[in-house]
Every structure is written in C-alpha cells, then in structure tokens.
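queue> holo job accepted (benzoyl coenzyme A)
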Amino acid sequence: MLISVTTTGSVEGVYGNDFHAPDEAAPRPVPTEADGEPASFRALLAGDERVEPRDEMPEAYRKTLVRQIAQHAHSEIIGMQPEGNWISRAPSLKRKAILLAKVQDEAGHGLYLYSAAETLGADRGDLTRRLIEGRQKYSSIFNYPTLTWADVGAIGWLVDGAAIVNQVPICRCSYGPYARAMVRICKEESFHQRQGFELLLTLSRGTPEQKAMAQDAADRWWWPSLMMFGPPDDASPNSAQSMAWGIKKHSNDELRQRFVDMTVPQAQVLGLELPDPDLHWDGEHWLFGEIDWSEFYAVLKGNGPCNEQRLNHRRRAHDDGAWVREAASAYAEKQAARAAHREEVA
Ligand code: BYC
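queue> job finished
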C-alpha cells in the first residue's frame, strides 16, 4: 500500500477505497441446500440479491442476524464510554468539538443498527434489556480503559481501523437493511479513523513525553484490536453458516490479516513500534505473533478490566432515562387520543 504524508501532515492513501472491498468481484459462496430454506430465499442468495424484510427467510437466518446486528448496535453504544471519558479533558476546544462529534456519530450508528434489527421483528427495549442483563454481547475492545489522551487517538486509528476492515464487506451482506445501514456507518468510521491517525501523528511529532504517550497507547491497544475480529477460524462456531448465508463475506482470520497488512505501514508513518517481536514481512503479508486467546475469552466472560464498569454505566444511563421514555409515551398517547377525537367529531 502506498502511503504518503503531505507537508501539512495529512496522510494520503490510508483508505483510498473506503467502502468497496478490494475483492468485490470474488465469487460469493454458493448457499447450502439446507433443509427448510425457502426456495425464494435460496434464489436471492444465489443471485447475489438482497433479502428484504418482506421476503421469506429461515428462522435461523433471522436469529443469526438479530444476534449479530444487536451485538453490533450494543458495541456502538457501549463504545461511546471509553472516548466519552475524555470529552471534558480534551486538550483544546477544537479537539473537544471533534471528539464530541465522533461520540455522537457512534450513538447514531447504534440507532441505525437497532432500527435494522427491528426490521427483523426484534424489539429495541428487549435488546437493551438483554444487554444490561448480560445476555447479549458487545465488542470485547470496549472493556479496556482509556488511560491517557493518546488512547483517543489509538481508538480512532486502531479500533475504527479494525471496524472498517470488518464492516466494509458487510455493506454487501445479504440482508438489505443491515447492508444499507453499513454504507453510511463505514463512511463515518473512515473519517473517525483519519482523525485518530492525525491525533497520534501530532503527538508522535510532539515532545518526547507526547511521543511516549502515543507509543504507550499503541502498545496497549494493538493486541485487543486484533482480537476484535473474533476467534481464529478453527474456533469460530458461527462463521461457516454465516458465510454460506452471505452475512459474513470473509473469515475472521482473513480480515485480521488484512487489518495487519494495512496497519503496519501506517505505524511506520507514525514512527510507532508495534508491540510484537515476531511481526515480519514474508514477501506477501505482515505475519504476526501468537494472540493471547485466553485474554479474549476472559474478556468475553465478563472479566476484562472494565466489563463491570461499562455495564453498570449503561444500566445507570438506562434507569436515568426512564422519565424520558415515560414522557415520550405519554405524549404519543395524548397525540393519538387527540387524533382519534378529531376523527370522531369530523
Ligand atoms: N467481542 O463464531 P464467531 C465499532 C463472539 S463497534 C465480543 O466468530 P461471529 C466501534 C461472537 O459473538 C465493533 N464477542 O462469531 C464502535 C460469538 O458469540 P455468540 C463491533 C465476540 O458472529 C464505537 C462467539 O464469540 N463490530 O466498530 O460469526 C467506536 C464466537 O465467534 C467477538 C461488529 O459487531 C468480539 N470481538 O463473528 C469505535 C461487527 N468476536 O454470539 C468503533 C459485526 C466474536 O455466538 N459483527 N465474538 O454468543 C461481526 O462481524 C461478527 O459478529 C464478529 C464475530 C466478527 C464480531
């Protein structure tokens, strides 16, 4: 990948291809002839057409989508917390305004995704309950703390970078509402990634203390970012079926490798080391060392550094918002009653 840094410090060629995966022409996996799948559904998949809410679909496909979309929506909403932590302490008004807008974008992404889940018959209140009761997951990455201002840059560069690699192919997934929501989300994530990169570039060209802060953030966020792509392919129970249904277009390991190949040259531009002594170029790819999967599974079980804090905060926000939900319902009821009365007298 060609990366050039202009005299103003902006980076060109980081994401020249924001929402088209490079292998767009790759053949789509042929759907399995599984029992009970409506012929109309199989025809849509075979023709690389989108399945829409009105279409017949197998119950297991619907459930898988609700699981993935809900997990994705929860990640966006919980993902507001680590960065939100720095809004009041951003080092300048400009940085504060940028961060505020970014965190607000994440809220928007969560809302598009809950709406996409609703097209599958899911109830938003029920999904929120499942999250706060710990019955539905959100991305492991948001269970790590943001200890310094540089972490805001590392989240943008690495976490949003990983999110883009993972989510660009979902713009072409088989379920229409999810695919369409993802187009806008990926455009915004791409912008977020650039702001994180630019923030870190500023720090890495700053004082020795600022450079050290950027390096420390890269050290702490690198491995958790690789874990975002999910377990290795041979330990990923959902991948085969999700790929056959066109929900996932690439395996977890494939996307992880794509992310590493893209990110190592960016680290070189930043002048930051990646904390992996085994990282090396084999002529085709940047091969990386062993991921500590025991850490990933511990975080998934609720034992990451911030799991409890994140869920407690989400529960508190939900409770604190009860009066808003009640007021909105009362208003809607009043409006409906007035409309009914107007119809009666007309
Ligand atoms: N964290 O069979 P597998 C963002 C679970 S938000 C937690 O490979 P699948 C952003 C997985 O759910 C980023 N859990 O599963 C926001 C499954 O458990 P269940 C979120 C994980 O679904 C704010 C089990 O492990 N992005 O970008 O085929 C600021 C086995 O895994 C994780 C999305 O959600 C994980 N990292 O593949 C900045 C993207 N990985 O459900 C940025 C959409 C795996 O069977 N989601 N698990 O109990 C996906 O693409 C897929 O769901 C995954 C996992 C690749 C994540």
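queue> Confidence is low (pLDDT under 50) at residues 1-22.
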